[in-house]
Amino acid sequence: MMKLQIANDRDRKEAQNRERRRQCELERRSRIFNARNRKIGVDVRFLERQVEEKRAERDEQERKNLAFAQQMIKDSNLAVVLEAREREERRRIDLEINEYRYRYQRPEDRREYDLNDPEVLKKQLPPRASDDNPVGMSSAQKFEGEDLNYEERKKIMAEQKNAWLEQQVQERKAAEEERKKAEEAYMMAIKSRDARASELDQLERECRYRLGQANLRYNEALAAERKQIKQIMKEQEEADNTAEMYNNLTSDMLTENPDVAKSALGKNRAIGFMYKGMNQEELKKFYAAQKEQMAANKMKRDAADKMEAEWQALSKSIQREVARQDILDQRQRREMAKQLMEENQLLAMQQKEKEKYFKEVVYNNTPTDEYYSQFNTTTR
Question: Rounded to two decimals, what is the model's pTM?
Answer without folding.
Answer: 0.23
